[in-house]
Amino acid sequence: MSGELANLQDRVVIIGSGLAGLVTALCLRPQPVLLLTRADLGAESSSQWAQGGIAASLGSDDCAALHAEDTLKAGDGLCDTAMVRLITEQAPAAIAMLESYGVRFDRDGTGAIALGLEAAHSRRRIVHAGGDASGAALVRTLAAAVKNSPSIDILSGCEVRRLIVDEGRIAGLLGATAKGALRLAASRVVLATGGLGGLFDATTNPQGNYGQGIMLAARAGAVLADMEFVQFHPTALDSARTPLALISEAVRGEGAVLINPRGERFMADVTGAELAPRDVVARAISTERQKGGKVFLDACQALGAGFSARFPAIDALCREAGIDPANEPIPVRPAAHYHMGGVATDSYGRTSIEGLWAAGEVACTGLHGANRLASNSLLEAVVMGKRVAEAMMVAKNKGVHLPDMAMPPDADLRSIRPVVSAHLGVLRHEAGLAAAVRAVLPMALAVQPASDPAMIALLMAVFAHRRCESRGGHARTDFPSRLAASCRQEMTLGEALDAAVTILSSSPTVQKRSA
């Protein structure tokens, strides 16, 4: 460890600087914190790009019970009811806390917080900051608060590659920096590293986000949950841009409709129509695209000339692609957007490893179940970031022994994206999932640049292979029905590797696990 970091080894260490990491750091004040981030604060986080806002029952016709009911419906039978109630009940307090940090939410003509509508919400309850650039506004404000907090030290340009575990508890971490390897002793670590959308060719997430936090926890021996559930946002802008720009659900909330090249509104007879749950809309668009045509989001009648005023950031993205959304339909396609699974945690973000917490998209709290309700992700990041901080406040640093560990290579996703995109997309089947396992298992077991992303792809494929039904963000063409009874899946990495070998046991290409 470098001399300049020697006095930081007993601090709480937060890995990641999206909304969950920033909130956790701020709520820990004045306790000393070290925040590690690959780039500048929030620069490579999905929080930064979030358009929709935060769901909170602030309207006179709304309440936490209704918000919880909508969340449970969207979660398709796999939500943890207690977590749903806890987080939805704390939503108004979360908004108030963010305002105390300086966040300015959009307000209507009366001065009240303006509330938008998104898919599967029964009330207008989406709180925005900066119109359709809510995530950027939140991250910008909280990042400034973090930078102005004397108790929070920030180390940018640090990519954590391994957690170090000694005698079953967190002992520290191994990271790569521009100045070389960093070995840091730490007995209290928070994962706030975001999701895994970068594993897909079509994604709205930062391309470098391949599930690093899940990888760190998995290799440390933590229990993982529901890795098969990926939410594909139905309406990413179908363009050459990488990653794909997001056309917020709020556009459909304002009346935009989905049409095929013949101008037919193919969602008209579906319950909820364009505002059906995201998995329903994504599957409908994928099916329409498989017929050989494109799909468009038409806001011409609903918004027309008012599009640019209501959605200035989206208007700019469309015009960048040569589209005038006020006068012509917007070409859209599903894209990997959010991961409902992740590191299994309790209601305070504790993982199965002593000294390790997780908050935000990297964690699986049970709030989202099989399918996230729109704008519940930023809410979860805020509420759970605060709860993680509360738990860590009473957890004491413990003396640790820091065993030696070799530095793994930098991750290379190029050989993994084609496999994940082909076999773990919106529509899945047994043969494709087995093919994915066959392709990535040897890489996951090796020590090479593709190993870490291959391991995340393997986990997704194994979990998906075991779920023989279609539910929420997991749709199988060979098991199109939803089982009457189903439950959350949990596995460690070791158990998943054993399951992968079993899946391929009849294949001569199987690479057995080393003893």
* Helix percentage range: 25-40%
CATH homologous superfamily title of the largest domain: FAD/NAD(P)-binding domain
* Largest sheet composition: 5 strands, parallel
* Oligomer classification: single chain
As laid out across the biggest beta sheet, the strand order is 6-2-1-10-17
* Mean pLDDT level: 92
Shape: globular
Radius of gyration: 22 Å
Which CATH architecture of the largest domain? Answer: 3-Layer(bba) Sandwich
Counting H and I runs of at least 4 residues, what is the number of helices?
A: 15
Secondary-structure topology with pairs:
Layout lengths: L11 E4 L3 H9 L5 E5 L16 E2 L8 H11 L6 H9 L1 H10 L14 E2 L9 E2 L6 H14 L4 E5 L2 E8 L2 E9 L2 E6 L3 E3 L20 H8 L4 E2 L4 E8 L11 H5 L3 E3 L18 H13 L4 E4 L8 H4 L1 H9 L9 E10 L2 E3 L11 E3 L4 E2 L11 H19 L22 H7 L6 H16 L5 H16 L23 E2 L1 H11 L12
Parallel strand pairs: 1-2, 1-10, 2-6, 10-17, 16-18
Antiparallel strand pairs: 3-5, 4-5, 7-8, 8-9, 11-16, 11-19, 12-15, 13-14, 14-15
Helix pairs in contact: 1-5, 1-11, 2-3, 12-13, 13-14, 14-15
